[in-house]
Specification:
With 466 residues, the chain is of the alpha/beta class. The protein folds into 3 domains: 87 residues, Udp-n-acetylmuramoylalanyl-d-glutamate--2,6- Diaminopimelate Ligase, Chain: A, domain 1; 215 residues, Mur-like, catalytic domain (UDP-N-acetylmuramoyl-L-alanine:D-glutamate ligase, 3-Layer(aba) Sandwich); 134 residues, Mur ligase, C-terminal domain (Protein-Tyrosine Phosphatase, Chain A), CATH 3.90.190. Helix content is 32%, strand content 22%. It has 17 helices and 22 strands. The chain has a 9-stranded mixed sheet with strand order 9-10-8-11-12-13-14-15-16, sandwiched between helices. Helix 5 packs across helix 11. The protein starts with a strand and ends with a helix.
Length: 466
């Protein structure tokens, strides 16, 4: 982060400097009292369960001297500390966001944002792999993609960067419009529209409307890249839902799309291969990641890179050095097993694709360890049932369902006549002692569930089997 002065912060957050020096500088922003520094700014966030104001004394003792607060009762408690910079605001979360917005505006960078129900993080990683070959680039680390994570991401950027890539998640309350206001992207990508957060937005149409708010601040000079292989994403739909005049570039498998993806070939654990048709020129693309659906994510990344001046051949070349976020269709080999660690998150669509990837792998038996999928609202039961039937119809050798909702995966799989052996466990802890007995040497094992299930712990237990 570049240094910014207290006066800049006071103005950006529409706050009141109660104590301190407007000419003093900070060089980092923290919301975690365990990670503060002497030269940092601590923003005291107030959540449903936690109020960071209670850590202010600890933060001060660790050497941090600059604070943003909203609880006025702390003014009196801190009045004897004459060496601090104390800024009072109405809402510290809004202040964090406003400061990120103001800070990003002073950086001379191209901004690319990514949203969608599935594939955001993978597309971000693909795009970063391309862009960093031509520009000094920054991106979100991990899953810092919500109304708190995006500002924290922005504070990791500095003036050395030329391009920043920012993933945006919807969350329970729907934050895309606010994130778009903070970032004001030059180019944006919508990967696909699935069923995640359907309980918030009511329908996939509602989810689409929310995701398209990423273009809220677009004008004719901006570009939205969309995935037309998704059944409800099209240029016509985007125009009708936004009513705005900006460039739309579409990726898909049909001739109507601007960029065509065809001849997708699954190479098992070596990745995928496909043909990209861009301005009537055909390119062969080899991608070292699992999942045929990632051909479209790669095409979206290539299209966005083109919009900031990166030629298609150079973009394809950049994909060769891909570094993926951990726990995303990540291959892990042990002496006995091949593991597909896809525990980062899950939706119905991503689980179905992951099962297809499992089937394409070479191994003695195919094992799917699947946990609960969250944030599906009224579609919770039906989505888990669809997954269960799909697993059995694909003749996965062993299905292990874990979790409260996953019982519907197991029950639905049992309705399909197949050779799939089915286990169900209420919690992941119930399976730990049985893994060595269920699994055989040479098995290929997919582990996938929503983030809250923490099934990476199951992956760890499997890796310990000798």
């Amino acid at each position: 982060m570049n240094k910014i002065d207290i006066g800049f912060i006071e103005k950006a957050v529409s706050g009141k400097l109660l104590n301190g020096n407007r000419n003093e500088y900070i060089d980092n922003v923290s919301i975690d009292s365990r990670r503060v520094t002497e030269s940092g700014l601590f923003v005291s966030l107030v959540g449903v369960k936690h109020d960071a104001h209670k850590f202010l004394d600890d933060v001060y003792e660790k050497g941090c001297k600059s604070f943003v607060i909203s609880d006025e009762s702390w003014i009196a408690k801190l009045k004897d500390k004459n060496d601090i910079n104390l800024i009072l605001v109405e809402d510290t979360t809004v202040a964090l966001q406003d400061l990120a917005k103001a800070y990003l505006e002073i950086l001379d960078v191209k901004k690319i944002s990514i949203t969608g129900s599935v594939g955001k993080t993978t597309t971000k990683d693909l795009l970063y792999s391309i862009v960093r070959k031509s520009y000094k680039a920054g991106r979100n680390i991990g899953n810092l993609n919500n109304d708190i994570g995006v500002p924290l991401t922005i504070f990791t950027f500095d003036s050395s960067l030329e391009v920043v890539i920012i993933e945006m998640g919807t969350g329970y309350d729907g934050h895309i419009e606010r994130l778009a206001e903070i970032v004001k992207p030059d180019v944006a990508i919508v990967t696909t529209i699935g069923s995640s957060h359907i309980e918030v937005h009511g329908s996939r149409d509602g989810i689409l409307k929310e995701k398209l708010k990423i273009s809220k601040y677009f004008s004719k000079s901006h570009t939205l890249v969309i995935n037309e292989s998704c059944d409800i994403l099209s240029k016509e739909r985007v125009f009708n839902d936004t009513g705005k005049d900006f460039k739309i570039t579409s990726v898909g498998s049909e001739i109507k799309s601007d960029i065509l993806v065809k001849n997708i070939c699954d190479l098992g654990d070596k990745g995928i291969e496909f043909t990209l048709v861009y301005f009537d020129v055909e390119y062969n693309v080899e991608l070292p990641i699992l999942g045929m659906h990632n051909a479209y994510n790669a095409a979206l990344a290539i299209a966005a890179a083109y919009e900031i001046g990166i030629p298609v051949p150079k973009a394809i070349e950049g994909l060769c050095d891909l570094e993926m976020t951990k726990n995303r269709l990540e291959i892990k080999k042990t002496d006995k097993f091949t593991l597909i660690d896809d525990t980062y998150n899950a939706s119905k669509e991503s689980v179905l694709s992951a099962v297809d990837t499992l089937i394409s792998m070479t191994g003695k038996r195919k094992v799917a360890i699947l946990g609960d999928m969250y944030e599906l609202g009224d579609d919770t039961v039906s989505s888990h049932e669809i997954v269960g039937r799909h697993v059995a119809e694909k003749n996965v050798d062993i299905l292990i369902a874990i979790g409260e909702y996953a019982v519907d995966i197991a029950e639905a799989a049992r309705t399909v006549t197949s050779g799939t052996k089915i286990y169900y466990f209420k919690t992941k802890e119930d399976i730990y002692s049985l893994l060595a007995d269920i699994l055989n040497e040479g098995d290929v094992i997919l582990v996938k569930a929503s983030r809250g299930m923490a099934l990476e712990k199951v992956v760890n237990k499997i890796e310990e089997i000798d």
